[in-house]
Specification:
Order of helices and strands: EHEHEHE
Number of strands: 4
Helix content: 40-55%
Radius of gyration: 13 Å
Strand content: 15-25%
Largest sheet: 4 strands, parallel
Shape: globular
Length: about 100
């Protein structure tokens, strides 16, 4: 099963965001699934430059649509992109995996 990793990127130090996504990728692998890590994808533009946010979310949505589950990092609610990805995944009936379940 392909699992899209979703979490906060914008507003974090880029290395912190990469570390968070790497840890999530390892967690998904340990569950026996195939992680789809948007931080590993090479787009025609660079995540370090000032590119409109909408370009990232469009590319990331294409990745999400190739999956059947979404893995939400603990910080997902702090990201408008991750909240949008969650809404799309929920609408499509994806399996939702949370890094930590709230009560």
């Amino acid at each position: 099963m392909r699992v899209y990793i979703s979490g906060k990127i914008t507003g974090l130090d880029i290395e912190k965001a990469r570390d968070n996504f790497f840890i999530s990728e390892m967690n998904v692998r340990m569950m026996g699934f195939t992680p789809i890590n948007p931080m590993n994808k090479k787009y025609l533009f660079n995540r370090m430059k000032k590119i409109p946010w909408i370009l990232y979310i469009i590319c990331d949505m294409f990745l999400l649509l190739k999956c059947t589950a979404i893995y939400l990092q603990d910080n997902w609610k702090d990201s408008k992109g991750a909240r949008l990805e969650y809404k799309v995944a929920s609408f499509l009936g994806y399996i939702i995996i949370k890094e930590r379940w709230e009560e």
